[in-house]
Amino acid sequence: MSRIPLVSTEQANAEQQALYAAIQAELGVVPNFLKVFAHSPDALRAFLGLYGIAKHGSLAPATRERIALAIAQQNSCEYCLSAHTALGKKAGLSHEEIGANRAGSSLDTQAAVAVRLARSLMENHGEVTTAELLEARAAGFSDADIVEIITHVGLNLLTNMIGKASRIEIDFPKVSLN
């Protein structure tokens, strides 16, 4: 049971219901982590706004999922690992690729650089080396791409915190951290 209760559709006030309707229209479902966010409609709107902007960036959806998988595994967030395994499969990631992402790499050479940079950002609290940034540029990532990698790390850290602090019931096919 979630330590922070979900705001059910039945309990939702008009503002929360409007947000749920927009999420339902976009995703086809309102995931449990967003039902925790809904306790603060302002926080939910802020997350959805940043998520909406970030998903339209230059990083490929598969690379965004690779980063999310790496960060979820690194932060031991079973909810996010389960969610992004499902989303990663939907984005075309193979079982082997998902395993590589969880281990902090990728079968794709360029994506491996993005995943390593994302994990380093987390591990070093943003204090990455000049060599890591040069490696990202050498792999073909622009400064805009690097900023987007950083943004996705931040987004995933936020959802990992929501998942872990609230111990949300997993509403995706469950994936173990081991």
UniProtKB/TrEMBL annotation:
Boundaries of every Carboxymuconolactone decarboxylase-like domain copy: 41-105
Protein name in UniProt: Alkyl hydroperoxide reductase AhpD
A Pfam match: CMD
Species, as recorded: Undibacterium squillarum
Entry-linked Gene3D superfamilies: AhpD-like
SUPFAM superfamilies membership: AhpD-like
